[in-house]
Write a structure and sequence with these properties.
The complex is a heterodimer of chains A (134) and B (130).
Chain A (H helix, E strand, L loop, with lengths): L1 H23 L5 E6 L1 H8 L7 E7 L4 E7 L9 E4 L1 H14 L3 E7 L5 H14 L3 E3 L2
Parallel strand pairs in A: 2-5, 5-6
Antiparallel strand pairs in A: 2-3, 3-4
Helix pairs in contact in A: 3-4
Chain B lengths: L1 H18 L12 E2 L12 E6 L5 E3 L4 E3 L2 H14 L4 E6 L5 H13 L4 E7 L9
Parallel strand pairs in B: 1-6, 2-5, 5-6
Antiparallel strand pairs in B: 2-3, 3-4
The chains are: A alpha/beta (134), B alpha/beta (130).
Amino acid sequence: MKSQGTIIRLIDVVLIILIGFASIADLTVRTQMLLPESWRQTLEEQSADSLTVLLVRVDGGGIYQLKFLDASGKTADFVAFQGADTLAAVLDRLRTQAHSLAVAIQPADSASLQTTVDVVDICEHLGIPKSLEL
Amino acid sequence: MLIRLIDIVLIILFGFISISHIDRQVGVEMPRVKYLPQEPPDFENWLVIGVYPDGSYSGDYGNIEFADLEALFGYINEVRKENKSIKIRIRADRNAPVGALRPLVAFCDESRLSVSLDMVLQDKERGEKP
């Protein structure tokens, strides 16, 4: 009887340790993004003739400015959007209109990392080749 | 019967011990992504550099603070002398300015150091197919 009581106490100790480790276990899924050479090569691998490159500038206030880079040297003015959702909708529309679209991301020094990574994430979701200038 | 239950509990305990991450937190909230492919960060030969929202840097999970970029680059060079195959993992806060990452990435590029940016993978939204 005495030994059973001891065993039950040991089980309690083990359960407490178990719950302790369960509570501190980090179950977040992490990923990593390689920089920067892999990003330089992304657009270079595409055929320059058929590629429509869209320049996306990320400003400090979470504003995205878009401009097409024309192979002939003519470029349109920047068009500004705010919010990742708006940018996603615009890129989705442009993707269906352009034959082969690629995005060059140019974050400003004051742009936050999250707003910059949001553009990368959107392009990944839409299957648009992208490059990140760091 | 009781011994078997104890064995089960011990197995579960060791399982949680093996997956728990008991290093100190840098104190940064990493950027969140949904669609980038999952690539578990390397856990060998890495040097973690923390970047805070104010643009300051830290090493060794916040134990080392760098007064400026020169101190940071000197630290990286010192570590590299001991381990030539070291890789740099940038653990930047999601609100850290990109301008704080640029000189670090440029230095790693010039030094031929592999550098990656850590992020947290969020759950994808339903119906995510474009």
